[in-house]
Write a structure and sequence with these properties.
This protein has 257 residues and is α/β, with parallel strands linked by helices. It has a single domain, classed as 4-Layer Sandwich (Metallo-beta-lactamase, Chain A). The chain has 7 helices and 12 strands. Strands 1-2-3-4-5-6-7 form a 7-stranded mixed beta sheet. Helix 5 runs antiparallel to helix 6.
Amino acid sequence: MRVVGLHPDVLVATSRVWQTTCTIVRNGDECFVIDSPVFPDELEVLPAVLEHAGFALTGLLATHADWDHLLGRLAFPGAALGVAETTAARLTAEPGAAARELRAFDDEHYLDREAPLSLGQVQALPVPGHCEIGEEELELHPADGHTADGMAVWIGWARVVVCGDYISPVEVPLLADGGSRDAYIATLRRLEPLVDGAAYVVPGHGEVLDATRAAAILREDLNYLAKLPEAELPIARRGEAQRAIHAANVQRVRSRV
């Protein structure tokens, strides 16, 4: 797992699998961990990362309910988890889904974990809205389209936007179950002004981006989505995995026409 500092109050850890990102933000004596790394050893070392940086955990946040973003409770078993109201509704509608998908991943990759995933106390946060942290606030913005739920987090004093599974340099837009091309486009439009004002953009998968590169990827993604099902993949994202995502997107869009 690679950890980089974006600001004295913001760290980003990137998992070895799918380049899944985990953002650690503090203000004063409070600290939130947003999303999570994936592998057991990465989660095991996460508390030490916070301790070394002098960050004292207040709670967990997740941008959406996909299982690979919900594993913070394995690193911090006693922490409460804050999510958008749409994500809380999805977790209620899909009880145990994240734990089952994690077990399937672990079985496929021969991984052992000390304990099963339990989400514990889940707090539904109004989105759009704010979440207090120290003397500042995190801005919470709706981010659906990839799935039916989600939020992006704007860390205003650090000029960092944590956008969940959007604006990825390694993954084309993915319309998952419950996702929507129109909603995805609407989310990208909402993210545009945040990207324009950002020093850094943290995608759910892939390296941290500066505003110029993030804006270019955002434009590519808007163009890709607008042209589905006839769209071509962006030049930098044409690997086998991305072609498989594209084929699923095409099928999903055509089934709704």
